[in-house]
Specification:
About 45% of the residues lie in helices and about 20% in strands. The chain contains eleven helices and ten strands. The protein has an eight-stranded mixed beta sheet with strand order 1-10-9-2-3-6-5-4. It has a two-stranded antiparallel ribbon with strand order 7-8. A hairpin with a 4-residue loop joins β4 (about 85-90) and β5. α8 runs parallel beside α10 and α9 (about 185-195) packs parallel to α11 (about 220-230). The longest helix is centred in the first third of the chain and has 13 residues, at about 15-30. It starts with a helix and ends with a helix.
Length: about 230
């Protein structure tokens, strides 16, 4: 049985246009085949939209990628996709990510995770079945919003409210979150430029400056991929 408290306390009735856009996404792309496959795997299995696609729907942006989260482990995801004749490749299975391919669409499906240790570049993770625990390891509140196929939100850190108010909030302590992954410095700046309606929090700026040297520890590939996103923004 799915967590009842999840539904009572963390799912929100959303504005009609957000719910409708999520339903349209479910109806107009092959993602419903993936929802059907995973949700029917067992009484406990579940999959939700997460991250950028939900953020962009709330902000009335064009959706250019669809990320999904599930409480199945990666091997189970592969088993389900194969059983339902959905093509896939193991794009990052060691970190829990499988990419499903259907009708030229690509859907990244990532297993819920918890961080065991981090060094500013990489995280040692364990798979989880706890949705809030997965949300708590994400960087910003606006990226920790999940939705089922019908537009019911799971938003434990009030990311929708922050997005609507133009506030870029780290989840938890900013210094700790940056030290977990120094790429978050660049991600903060990108999201601030894209979404902020408020002046910088001086404490956040101080924290960014203290940690700025950590960017040199990141791989050129990760830096390049993030800078590309900045360019698109």
């Amino acid at each position: 049985m799915r967590n009842v408290l999840d539904k009572i306390f963390f799912r929100s009735n959303n504005l009609d246009y957000i719910s409708q856009r999520i339903k349209d996404l479910s109806r107009n792309t092959p993602v419903s085949k993936i929802f059907d496959a995973i949700n029917s795997y067992s009484n406990e299995s579940e999959i939700r939209y997460v991250g950028g696609c939900i953020r962009k729907i709330i902000n009335k942006e064009k959706i250019d990628d669809i990320d999904l989260a599930t409480n199945l482990d990666p091997k189970e995801v592969c088993k389900v996709l194969k059983k339902n004749n959905i093509n896939y490749f193991e794009s990052g299975i060691e970190h829990g990510t499988i990419t499903a391919v259907e009708d030229k669409y690509k859907f990244e499906i990532t297993t819920l995770r918890r961080d065991i240790s981090t060094d500013g570049r990489h995280a040692k993770i364990e798979f989880s079945n706890d949705w809030k625990e997965d949300a708590s390891r994400r960087d910003f509140t606006i990226n920790s919003i999940y939705s089922d196929r019908d537009g019911n939100l799971f938003d434990p850190f009030n990311g929708k409210k922050d997005l609507e108010n133009g506030i870029i909030n780290f989840i938890g302590d900013a210094d700790k979150r940056i030290k977990e992954d120094y790429l978050r410095i660049l991600r903060y700046l990108r999201f601030y430029l894209d979404y902020s309606k408020q002046p910088h929090n001086p404490e956040i700026i101080r924290t960014l400056k203290i940690n700025i040297g950590g960017i040199s520890k990141l791989s050129k590939e990760r830096l390049f991929n993030e800078l590309k996103k900045n360019y698109k923004s």
